Request: fold
Amino acid sequence: MAYGGFRELTPVDEAVDRARALVRHRPPIVEVPVGDALGRYVAEDVVAPFDIPPFNRSVVDGYAVRSRDTFGASPSNPIVLKVKGFVGVGETPAYGVGEGEAVEVSTGAPLPPGADAVVMYEKARRIGDVIEVLEPVPPLGNVSRVGEDVRRGEVVVRRGTRLMPWDVAVLASLGFKRVRVYDVRVAVACIGGELVELDSVDDVESLFKRGFIVNSNRYSMEGLLRYHGFTPVYMGIVRDDVEAIRAVLEEALEKYDAVITTGGASVGRIDYTVEAARSLNPELLVHGILMRPGRANSLAVVRGKPVFMLSGFPVASIMGFEALVKPILLHMVGAGEEPKPRIKGILTRRVTTPVNTRSYVRVKVYTREGRVFVEPLALTGSGILSTLIKGNGILIVPENREGFDEGEEVEVVLLRSPASIEP
Amino acid sequence: MAYGGFRELTPVDEAVDRARALVRHRPPIVEVPVGDALGRYVAEDVVAPFDIPPFNRSVVDGYAVRSRDTFGASPSNPIVLKVKGFVGVGETPAYGVGEGEAVEVSTGAPLPPGADAVVMYEKARRIGDVIEVLEPVPPLGNVSRVGEDVRRGEVVVRRGTRLMPWDVAVLASLGFKRVRVYDVRVAVACIGGELVELDSVDDVESLFKRGFIVNSNRYSMEGLLRYHGFTPVYMGIVRDDVEAIRAVLEEALEKYDAVITTGGASVGRIDYTVEAARSLNPELLVHGILMRPGRANSLAVVRGKPVFMLSGFPVASIMGFEALVKPILLHMVGAGEEPKPRIKGILTRRVTTPVNTRSYVRVKVYTREGRVFVEPLALTGSGILSTLIKGNGILIVPENREGFDEGEEVEVVLLRSPASIEP
Reply:
C-alpha cells in the first residue's frame, strides 16, 4: 500500500501485537517501602502470610457457648448456663466451654475451646454466675471464622497490579513493610533543530517569530509517563542527524527499559530516527501507523526493548503514546489497561475520517438542558494547542468506519467532566 | 430521627453542601516549575501572553500571492506572476507582494505584506523568475492566521484545573516556566489504642492475636490524598482521649488546610473525636452521615477549615473520603469532580440496603461470554480486607432506593478493568 510517502502503514493493533511478541526485556525490580508504592506496578504475586481473623472470634459482646446447648431457649423457657470467666480482646482463653457452660467474651476476643457461637448480651439475662439464655444461637452465630476474611496463602495482590490507596492499606494490614515493584525507566529524546528548551528561552514570542518553538513534547511525554507510573529519563534535544540520533538510541538502550523519541520521523522529508533505528539491526521496525493524527508514528524493537518514534506534532505524539507506548509498557509489567471514563452524546457536526485508519478526534463534550453533546474540534492544521486546551474528550473512530454523522450518538473517552452550558 | 445510637444522621449531599458553604479558608498558593506541576490544581486563570501563530503564516511550501490575481487560472489558461524573492522560516519578509507579483515561501514562514494566500508548488510551474499559476487560490488559502490557534489574552488553563500532561505541554509551549498552584496540606491523625505503626511491628500475626492491628488507615488516607493531588501530613496515632485528640486538632488547624481523623467516632461508645471537635466551637458539626458503610463518619468546620472525622473501619473511612473529603477539598481549590469510569452489568444477587441511606456496595465486575456481570461482595461483618482485594467496582445505591434485584441492570463505578471469566 502506497500512502502519503510511506511505503506501507501498519494498523495500530497489529503494530502493538507484533511489538509485544518481540519485547523480551523485563524491567528491573526494586523493593520500596509500602508507603512509597502508590501507583507502582507489583512485580510478583503477594500472598497472605497468615489467616485473618487468626482464630475464631466473637463479633459481639456476650457469652461464648456450645450452640446446641441453646436450642429450644425462649423468654418463657430460658436455658441456664454457668459462666466460667471472661476473655477480652488479645487474651488467650484460660477456660474451655463444656456442656452447660459459658464464657463471657468481648467483641474481637477469641472463642474459648469448645464454644462454637456467641449469645449477645441482649439475648441473655445475667444472674450472679449464671445466665439465662432467652433465644437459641446457631452454630457459628456471632462468630467470625478463622481465615474468613483472608486465608493464609491466598494471593492478595497480583503481579502487574497498579497499587491503589486501598491496596497499600491491605499490604500494611498484613504487615508488609516493603513491596517489590517494577522500576521502569523510559528515555525521552526530542529530535529537531527548531526546538529550544523552555529554561533557555527569554522571549517566547520572538522565538516563535524566528521560526523556533519550545520543546513542549518533553513535558507531555514526561508527564504521560509519570501519570501512568513509569519513570522518564530525559536525554535532551537531538539535532536532525542520523548519527547523533543513533548515538542517543544506543545510550538509551544500554541504560534504560524503553525509548521514546519525538520528531525526526515525518512525511516528506528524511526519517532520521527511523534510519537510526534501522542501523541498530532491529528485531522489528514498523514505519508509519494507520492512525490519525500520528501517521508518522513508528516503532521498533531493538535487543528486546521497545523504541517508540513518535511524531513531533504535539497531538500526534500524545495519541501515539496512548495507542502504542502505553499498551506495550503495560505489557512489560504484566498489567492490563485501566478502565477509562466514557460518555455517550449527540455529535453536533459530521466527522469524516480516512478508511482503514484509527482516528482520534478531539472533541468538546458539554451538556445543555440535560442532554450531552459532542462537538468535534479541528482535526488538522493549526489547531495544535487549542484542541488540547478546548477539548475534554476523544472520539475514537475505528478502522472500519469513515466517520460519524451529525446527530448520531457516539461514545467518547472523557478527559475531563463535561461543562454544563445552559442557554 | 433516632438511629443506631446517633441522635440525627445527615444525608451525604446535605453534609457536603453545608460544609462547603462554611469553609472560608483558601489554601496557600505556591509557584512551581512547570515540569513539577503535573497533577496539581492551578490557582489562577492562565492567559495566553501572545497570539499563536504570531503572524499570518504559510502552512505549505509555495508562493505567497494576492489571491485575486489567481482567479480564473487553469492549466490551459495559466496566470503568470513575477517571483520577487524568498522568505524562509524565522525570516522577516524583505519584499511586499504587489499586483502580478509572488514571493516564494517555505512552510511556517510569515506572509509578506500584500499577500493573502499561498499557491502550493504543485499548483504552479516555475520558469526562471516567473511562475505560471495553474489553479486559483481563495483568500487565506494555505494560510494560518495570526491568533488562529491561541489568541492573546485567551484563558488557556482555568483556575481549579488539575494539570494533565497535555496542559503542562501547552503551558511550556507558551513560555510559562513556572505556574501558580494550590498547596493543600491535609493533616491525618489516626485514633485508637488498638493501633500500632507498621514500622514498629515485627510479627503481625501475633500482634493480631494480642488484639492490636496495624494502622492501615494511615496508608489509605495518605494514598487517597496523594492520588487526588493533595499533600498528606501524618500526625501519628492518638489515644482515645478527648484532650489528646483536641490537642492534635488544634495543632493541625493551626498549621494545615484541613484535617482527617480516623477512628474514635463510632457507634456504641464515646465519640472522642466528635467531643474534641465540639470543644473547639465549630461553625458546623455534623455527627453521623446517612451512608453505609460509614454511618459513623462525621465532619465539622472549625475556623473556616474542614475537619473530617472518619470511621476507624478501613472500608468506611475510604468511602467517607470519597463521599465527604474529596468534594470539599476539590471545592477549596475550585475544581470539579473528575469523570469516573462506569460500566453497566447484570446484578448476580439481590442487594438490600437501608432506605434514606446512600450505600456503597463493593462489587466484583466480570465478563462471561461477552456479558458483564456485577457480583455484590459482603456488605458488613468480617469482609474488611477481602472486599478491598476482591472488589473492582462500587455500586452506589441512592437514598431513594432500598437496593436492586437479582438480574437487574445496574451501573457501577469501576476501580479496575473487569476480568474475563470464560466458562
Remarks:
- The domain at 57-144 of chain B is CATH 2.170.190.11 (Molybdopterin biosynthesis moeA protein; domain 3).
